[in-house]
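Task 17 of the worksheet. Students: predict the tertiary structure of the chain below and write it out as structure tokens. Keep your answer in the requested format; marks are given for formatting as well as content.
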Amino acid sequence: MLLSLVTRVWPKVRTPNAHLYFSKRFVSLKPLQILGNSIPTDETTNVTPTILSKIHLRLHSQPSHPLGVLRSLIESHYPDFSHFSSVSPLVSPYQNFDELSFPPDHPSRSPTDNYYLNKGLMLRTHTSAHEVEMFRQGETKWLLTADVYRRDEIDASHYPIFHQVEGARIFDANASGMKEVEEDNKRLSKFLARSNIVIEDVPHLSSTNPAQPSHDPQLVKLVSLNLKLSLNSLMFKLFGGSATSPSSPLRVRWIEAYFPFTSPSFEVEVFFQGKWLEILGSGVIQQATLDAAGVSNKIGWAFGLGLERIAMVLFSIPDIRLFWSTDERFLSQFKKGEITTFRPYSKYPPCIKDISFWIPQNGRFHEGDLYDLVRDTAGDLVEDVKMIDQFTHPTTGRTSMCYRINYRSMDRSLTNEEVNRVNEQVASQLSSQFDVEIR
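Model answer:
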């Protein structure tokens, strides 16, 4: 179900945006050509050319790419699960939200957070959008790896396209299913007892993390334990190499969480390289999801994890943009089935430019507009974008904002003249598309 990067795994509740908006840059667009389909557009359309140009790349399907290597490692831990990795990213808002019990007014539906192709079609924001589909077609234990899309800030750990693995398993909600869960719990417990791992757990159920009204609490406890044992063993597979002696075990801790589509819900953290890392979100699947899939007599768990988050740590990759590099100095360092440490081949100097502007008083500018525009204009030449100043004029009431754009290529040196041209294009496009007044 399926970013810190745990919220890039399963979306948490966010503070609602002050307004919804539609930029004039997306008005009167021609039909979009995506994966062989012609998609009509409307006033909701806000997907950008940069995003459209990368939909077909599917980095997780490249065996020697770090994301492909990690995906294969996770799949090998679940050999008896069905594995999916070629599911189209085009989903309806109903699939992405309603089938997973997101309230109609949930802020995560906003166009400031998502890429809409039109009012009835969007790019999935999490792999959880396919849960009902998987269960409906009869899958009872499965992994689904896919690219997901969210309008996001620009820095070394955020990118508007990233990759997730969704895992789920369901059991019959009867005595037979309970026996299956108990047997699997015994198997996993024996494995973990032999492993150099220390687990800080939380109760399977609590007043703040309850069972769903329609569920038997005892069965929920068994299913929650099965979820935890399964993921503890996965954490040991991924990070256990750091547990070099009995005196330095792998440390894993569980934390109560909230997601609209699970209850009880949990997050998992791993102590790795001297700090706690948020790894994934998980929980017992909402019964409404199973009911929508036509498997009301089942109970089960699901989890979602972000591949980039884990790959950046395991492969020592310092900048998320590198995953999209086609430079052989990057790609040649990785091989199928191997986790290797990335060796930086260069560190080119930054070229920093500031851009200041008055935002329009019609309220139609959102920070996400700037991020998308910078990506469309400068591509991956931008390392990060940060707001460094904001003030409101006491007399006119107009608001001014100043952003610092750090231009730095991963593959070559940039000249000041080249960056000036690009930055001037950014300013020009901001003015023409969003009615801002450049200062």
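Marker's comment: The mean pLDDT is 91. The chain has eleven helices and 17 strands.
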